Amino acid sequence: MTIPSRPSVEIVEVGPRDGYQGITPFIPTDLKISFIERLVSVGVRRIEIGSCVSEKALPQLRDTHEVLTACVRIPSVAPQVLVPNQRRGEQAVNAGARTLVFVLSVSESHNRANVQTTPEQSVDEYARLLKAVPSEIAMRLDLATAFDCPYEGRVQVAATIAMLERLVPLRPGAEICLCDTTGRADPKHVERLFSTCISRFPNVSRWALHAHDTYGRGLANVYAAYKQGVRTFDASFGGLGGCPFAPGATGNVATEDIVYMFERMGMATGIDLEALVAVARDGAALPGGLAGGRVRAAVTAKVQMQARSASSKA
Amino acid sequence: MTIPSRPSVEIVEVGPRDGYQGITPFIPTDLKISFIERLVSVGVRRIEIGSCVSEKALPQLRDTHEVLTACVRIPSVAPQVLVPNQRRGEQAVNAGARTLVFVLSVSESHNRANVQTTPEQSVDEYARLLKAVPSEIAMRLDLATAFDCPYEGRVQVAATIAMLERLVPLRPGAEICLCDTTGRADPKHVERLFSTCISRFPNVSRWALHAHDTYGRGLANVYAAYKQGVRTFDASFGGLGGCPFAPGATGNVATEDIVYMFERMGMATGIDLEALVAVARDGAALPGGLAGGRVRAAVTAKVQMQARSASSKA
Description:
The structure is a homodimer. Chain A is α/β, with parallel strands linked by helices. In chain A, 43% of the residues lie in helices and 15% in strands. Chain A has one domain: TIM Barrel. The first copy, chain A, starts with 9 loop residues before the first strand and ends with a helix.
């Protein structure tokens, strides 16, 4: 693989975690691994492969350790694992994780629903996690309800900043991902929050956006963050996803939609769009999957039309 | 109705023209008029109610004169009619039209497919139309394939500017709408084209964007245009639409998606979102309709959930 000479963005494929977690029928472990291998083969490099949480809370992700073990053997993939506390973080590292994603919410009610603690307790837990795992483990912080909460509505920019004032000093080098948990963020809000964060916390090495497309604003929000300098974006193949604790918030922004937009803008993603669409089609067809995005259908129709045209000429 | 004190955007509802024209089963004239009345009742003010073209080219719109006659009697609606030439423009004015939309394409192959002439001939036709109709008739210019052509691919900014150099001086006061005919425009392209146009043609009173959502970029492109100062946006209720000459380009950006985004951004649209969603639901259910957008499904699910919750409490 050659290093792209065009300016580039980094796509973090979160389908195997956020896309799967709300799906009830268990996706066999082999199939999960096969999807990861296929995603890698189309050029995806960074993948959130699961979540180390209680089997009762998210039965779909109960095989995350096995998936992680398999990923460690796949060349050129950078797997990351979501963890809610120190104990799970240590388990993940022992299983081979080299990037951990620690999640907490700005809003108290969502944090209680998601990880059964107050945000303050989660901040303390993050501090304990940082002390417990070796410093070479890369750390990402997923800040849920950074824009809006399913229970409390719009989250003020000041509230998110106040939370970051406590979190950032604990490890300034951590990547920070602001999550639009409900999909209700608008691009103006995204612009304001990122512009405030980036100027307030200049030492943060990398900012990311986790966008949902529930109300069709996924790519608008991605573009707004891009304009502020953000270059790392979460996305889910086939637009699979949603938060089980955020009613109606189905649909991460689709990886194929975000790839097509950035490639069209002249930004390299390293991902082969047409090959990705084939994987996305199979992902969207998973029993119980809540799929989204627009590029999958449009590109599939185009490919079928070209195939019909070629066969009629043959 | 009170005049909104918040900053505002203007939504041009084009469903009754662009949304309907690709639908094969004839939508009865009474139903068309009823949809317009319902759209007006939820706050929509400006509506493209049809197109004066040959019945053979667009049989669905063969009743545009009757629809226009009915619209003239509806209070507080500003109907506009699309016309491809001088003769049709005069017919529309005689039938009561007070705003005409003249359409031509930047790319030759699309202009030939759409109106059977070269772009140069269309420019001359526009000049004839301007001379033929009274000066109090408001004029909008729809510039199709301003970003991308289904036959010729990406349209260079310079090509669109060159076309505008010929068109703008003919009537500097005309509104100009740049149309993303294929939905393949990206927000960076939208930003560049509008920023160039606005600085190059400072006397143009109003710029508009006609966005399609084929690849999920509808709202991203709307936001990019908004950032350049554009405040007038075409949209289609239920996301109905597409160009019969642009294969795969189904789906204008949905009115309900654009309304929700701007309202969330603090911009007034004058439109009642929940009431609009009910109309959009019925529009999307039209036999043969190609619907799109995300807000319709998400808001419908929320309203149903609230209704279930209320009835279980009763």
